[in-house]
Write a structure and sequence with these properties.
Layout lengths: L3 H33 L2 H5 L6 H33 L6 H20 L9 E3 L13 H4 L6 E6 L17 H9 L2 E6 L6 H18 L6 E7 L1 H15 L8 E7 L7 H13 L16 H5 L33 E8 L7 H6 L6 H4 L17 E5 L10 H10 L2
Parallel strand pairs: 2-3, 2-4, 4-5, 5-6, 6-7
Antiparallel strand pairs: 1-3
Length: 400
Amino acid sequence: MVSIRSVHGSAQLLLDVTGGVTDIVEKMHRTIAREVNPLNRLRDMTGETPVAKQGHTYRIIQSTTSLLKQGLHRSLDGLSAQEEWELSPQSLKITAALNGVCGDHLEASGNPLAISMHLRNSRGEKLQPGSTSLSTMIPDASPRIAVLVHGLCLSHEYWKGHNEGNLGTELQSAHGFTPLYLNYNTGRHISRNGRELSQQLQRLIETWPVEVEELTLIGHSMGGLVIRSACWYAGELDLPWTSRLKNAVYLGSPHHGAALAKAGHLLTSVMRQFRYASPFALVRHTSAGIKDLRHGNLLDDDWAGVDQDDFHPDYRKPVPLHEGTRHYFIAAAIGKQVWDLPSTMLGDLLVRLDSARGQHSDDLKKLSICAEDCRVFEKLNHLDLLDNKVVHEQILGWLA
């Protein structure tokens, strides 16, 4: 059965895309018309040129789109708000991918497809920290909690593993952890997700059915950056949950930026320098979360007041690893050896080895890592880190 909220959100997003494409076409049209006849630049100011007349057509399209969106909201807002909505695993993965690409827009526009941050138990049920149902949903609550945080465009479903196992249930069987899985909108700024996660972890610790003795956070890719951001904001907000944080594990996390995000930003910067190409620099319309991955922004100060589409140096404020916590780093390399050319240049295809291991030429940004707490796995790519048996064995060994 098709969800009303899903139809509502998809239709709204389609209308938003229509408006965005109309803007791009109008800019391209104006650029070409003015370049063909430079006099059009002056005549267009008086409203006498075909360009100005065509602009009226574009305004009609945008006005019609706006009216359709208003009608859509009036028709479906009430129904979608009342609906008990639970997506199938496949639909959830598609929604998660959309959130990664344009999640900040979905949230700002009030689109029902925007994912709100929440925790789930091993059965996939949503938890509500602070409610009386928590003890019912976690009847075998352990004093040891492991929270698994997914990466960009992914969801909690990806921790279940495609081939070799579920890291959360393995931690439960081997070491008595109660596994919880975070689901969140990866298109938001990392710092905003980090602050919200910090507050949710505090509520979780306060309302857990038994006294929490140990908290372990495990983040894949962007998830590792969200964890580090959450630790920072715990100090800023004076939240004591970090006193229970014994371990943090980072799987292919781009601590100093992701290669693909850097390449996309460079391409956008080049395209913006050319009049005809500038309207098609679509990477600048991607989410705030993706743009944060260029350098690995963790804090509001890293992006506030900065045009993230412009070419600019790394303005990040250095964020050291949280003291009193053991930090473990896992990186992947597609080559057969760590030092061969594919591994050195490409890392795991998305994150280079130096970034995943926290290495940086600036000593202030370089992360202090013990050699025995860092492991590189050859012949693996970025997503392999989620469900590889050898990777799981390494984590289980560290957390024993």
